[in-house]
Amino acid sequence: MSxxxxxxxxxxxEDDHNKKILKGLDLEINPGEIHVIxxxxxxxxxxxxxxxxxxxxxxxxxxxxYFEGEDITEESTDKIAKKGIFMSFQTPEEIPGVTxxxxxxxxxxxxxxxxxxxxxxxxxxxxxMKELDMKEEYIKREFNVGFSGGEKKKNEILQMLLINxxxxxxxxxxxxxxxxxxxxxxxxxxMYKNDNNAVLIITHSTKILKGLNVDKVHILVDGKIxxxxxxxxxxxxxxxxxxDYIK
Amino acid sequence: MAKTNxxxxxxxxxxxxxxxxxxxxxxxxxxxxxxxxxRQISKEKNEPDWVLDxxxxxxxxxxxxxxPDWGPDISYLDINKIATYVKSIDKEKxxxxxxxxxxxDVFDKLGIPESEKEALAGSGAQFDxxxxxxxxxxxxxxxxxIYTSFDEALREYPELVKEYFTKAVPIMDHKYIALHYALxxxxxxxxxxxxxxxxxxxxxxxxxNAKGAGQFEHTLIIVDENSKLQFIxxxxxxxxxxxxxxxxxxxxxxxxxxxxRFSTIENWSKNMLNLNTKKxxxxxxGKIEWIMGSFGSxxxxxxxxxxxxxxxxxCEFTNISFAGKGQNLDTGLKIIHNAPHxxxxxxxxxxxxxxxxxxxxxxxLVKPNASKSKLSISCESLMLDSESRSDTIPVDTIQCDxxxxxxxxxxxxxxxxxxxxxxxxxxxxxxxxxxxxxGFAEPIAKAFPVEYAVEMxxxxxxxxxxxxx
Lengths: 247, 469
Ligand SMILES: Nc1ncnc2c1ncn2[C@@H]1O[C@H](COP(=O)(O)OP(=O)(O)OP(=O)(O)O)[C@@H](O)[C@H]1O
Ligand SMILES: [Mg+2]
Known about the structure:
The complex is a heterodimer of chains A (247) and B (469). Chain A is of the alpha/beta class and 247 residues long. Chain A contains 7 helices and 12 strands. In chain A, strand 11 (216-221) and strand 12 (224-229) form a beta hairpin. Among the domains of chain B are: 23-302, no CATH class; 423-469, no CATH class. In chain B, the strands form 3 sheets. In chain B, strands 5, 6, 8, 9, 11, 12, 14, 15, 17, 18, 20, 22 and 24 form a 13-stranded mixed sheet that branches. Chain B has a 10-stranded mixed sheet with strand order 4-3-7-10-13-16-19-21-23-25. A two-stranded antiparallel sheet of chain B has the order 1-2. Bound molecules: adenosine-5'-triphosphate and magnesium ion (MG).
């Protein structure tokens, strides 16, 4: 059974019902796989990630989304997260007044439905932060407040590792990262990845893909997947751009 | 709903704590406001004539003065329907064990004062119009510290009380302070002699219990030269359909080089009209710290005044208010800089939801003699939806050139993106809002004593759920 199965999904924008964004998109992801989505700016990549999560900013007008065989098309955002889907945001939010430590505790409590044991959780957070080259003292800082763009992205990967979802969607986690930070993100993905979970990477660059075992690459243009291939498709796009795929 | 992320989440049982109603026997109850009633109250308390005179003058003033022509409408208050005096105990108790079980139960459920005994230098409790209990550690008694009910202070220390009573808040200040002086009953009296530092706080808890009752406690605190005091005041009431009234008064005197931190957590039910008056005089190099958390009530009008009368006197004001459905919290502060090198720092936050209204009036006056003074005022409001309202109304009168002055006011709506982000982390909308609000309130919560910060977070949680009566 596939982990995520998207069938003919159509969406419009909540604040502009005439704005059609996804126009009949299909996608199948199996446990153990790493998928990549590439596509021009504005083609609907972030919309896809947010549509999976039932973001209130988009309305699904047609189609269905299944997770582990269960129809989650109408499911609420928090329930979808609890079922095991995670998203690393293209622009992560800040939560003033809440320390990173307290934030992570709250997230862990919500996902698991019970408070984590502090004696196990805090060392786990500290170790993971170390692996991701994050400064230890950041744990006391307000969540994402005053963090640099790259630091915020690492914070997303930190959350992915602590939540340990079944499917992680990474929306341009590599954008704006320096060479070392990209390596750290790749390291994080490899730490997370196993035969039972899956990753969906949205990216504009092949740099992040080099250290990963990519199974499939999809090209998303104008709300539809227009081509699916293996890693070589990503290299081809890197070389030639999207001109062959835009009508 | 799954158990939440929030550390101090309350289960159903604890949620009902504030609504505990006692079936204690009421020894005496009087309704309305007449000269007869006032004479009876005074007689029962065995008061000296000068106190009765004040009550009668105030009574006359109450009927002469009119409601303020600004702020929330309170014209529906009918004093004849208010139980202006509710006596629930024959005599104040010395030990907690002597307090009648029905009353003790209510305080026990609120966690007062048993759970905090170790952390306090002394504590007091008032139930409706009667002080039920006051206690101070023996060593402090020996060192000349006075902490009694206001009624007892009038009997035991009449000269000391007379010197300060009505001197910070005069009886003609406004209509509802006149009402207070006509009916005042209970409250705390504190005198800290010179060169005395209390390492633990004193705490008074005021519980309004009876349906349709008014509470008019008077708190008078004098911190003499080079002394230090932290005072904590807690107030709460169960929910009723009838209107309840709170018109308390706090008079504070901070002498040369003295320090007073006055913390208040008010958690009124939504049938409460809270018309409270607080003032503080600060002498040379003295410091007053106000820390306030205002929750509940139908209408609140409260604007503590600090008068910085000596050079280098200072005031710090930290406040949080939360207005939910049907609530109008009109609060703020007044500060008068009346000497050179005086400093004030204001940090206020307000939260409104479900159509609640929060208005924050900051009124500062820097007199011509207050050169080299510094003022920093910050007011932030957070609206949780588009029906709610938050206003900040600053009135700054600066009559002196040589001052450093900063006034910052921001009004913002809770971010839908932030809520969505937290939802993708498994939080329900309520849990997400609660985390954001707690973060917003965190700088204020930090200023409270630990147990009260916990209490405050708990109140925020209850307000967000809309479960406070
Ligand atoms: N809430 C919205 N209201 C109206 N239009 C929207 C809304 N959200 C997205 N769009 C539009 O839908 C299209 C797809 O946006 P989306 O953010 O999914 O693009 P993307 O593929 O992630 O682009 P990028 O590579 O720049 O991140 C864009 O044209 C965008 O302007
Ligand atoms: Mg995008």
